[in-house]
Structures are given as C-alpha cells and as structure tokens.
Design a protein that fits this description.
Blueprint lengths: L2 H29 L6 H31 L4 H5 L2 H16 L1 H16 L7 H18 L1 H10 L8
Length: about 160
C-alpha cells in the first residue's frame, strides 16, 4: 500500500472511530435519565463497554497515523495542539470512569434486585460526568482542525 493510500485509510478509520465514540456518548446521555429503566441500564452497560474499547483503538490508530502516515511524528511531537488534543482525550477518558463504575454497580444491583432503580442523585452525578465528557469532547476536533492547518508548533 502506498503512502497516500495508507494515510487515507488510517484517516478514515480514525475519524469513523471518533464519530462512533461520540455517538456512544450521545447514546449514554440520552439513556441515562432520571426515569432510567432496568432494560436501559442493561443496554447502556453493554454499550458503555464499547466506549472503553473504542477509546483504546482510537489512541492506537491515531498514533500509528501520526508515526507512519499523515505528516509524520516530527510534525506532531512539537505541536501544542496535538498535545492539547491528546490531553483532552485523556481527560475525557478519565471522566468516563465514574459513569462506567456507576453503571457496573447498577447492573450488579439489578442481578440481586430486579426492581432496583438508581437513586436520583446518583443519576444526576453520572449525567454530570457524561455532559462534562461531551463538553470537553467538542474541543478535540477544534484542536485537530487547528493542528491540521499548521498552527501550534513549539519552537525552542
């Protein structure tokens, strides 16, 4: 596979993964409501497991793209917007831990009590984390667009 094709394929895969991750986050925001039902807890738990998997794959594909395609590692390693994008993605990932843990606990509670319903304050807390993730997630394509246009090179 030639360089241009490899770069194109990696870019397509990377973008599709990122959009899928955004879709999962939107699904979670739409599903985790104050009226969440048993079936929705089970469904959001299954979908949430893909969130972590996709995030890991995005990192791998993104770093492969930055090192063997796109503009090359030398371009990215000295760019503040690249590192801002990576840092933002990691913060979003860290914020996702609390909802994941809560959803795992809710699913566990359902196993022992089929009538379990999460307390409203727990749901509000999870929704707060999900909305914080979404707000920060918006910065990622902003940093990517700035980076792609050559802004942000750190000069010694």
């Amino acid at each position: 596979m030639d360089y241009a094709t490899r770069d194109l394929v990696l870019a397509i895969v990377h973008h599709l993964l990122v959009f899928t991750l955004a879709g999962i986050l939107a699904f979670e925001i739409g599903t985790v409501t104050l009226t969440i039902k048993r079936e929705e807890i089970v469904r959001v738990g299954r979908v949430d497991s893909w969130y972590g998997i996709l995030a890991g794959v995005i990192i791998v594909v993104g770093f492969i793209r930055a090192t063997v395609a796109a503009k090359g590692w030398a371009y990215y390693e000295v760019n503040i917007f690249f590192w801002a994008k990576i840092a933002t993605f990691l913060v979003v990932g860290l914020l996702s831990i609390a909802p994941t843990v809560a959803i795992i606990r809710w699913r566990g509670a359902l196993r022992s009590d089929s009538d379990f319903a999460p307390p409203a304050d727990a749901i509000r807390r999870v929704r707060g984390y999900l909305w914080a993730e979404a707000a920060l997630f918006l910065l990622i394509p902003v940093f990517a667009a700035i980076l792609a246009r050559g802004y942000g090179e750190l000069t010694p």
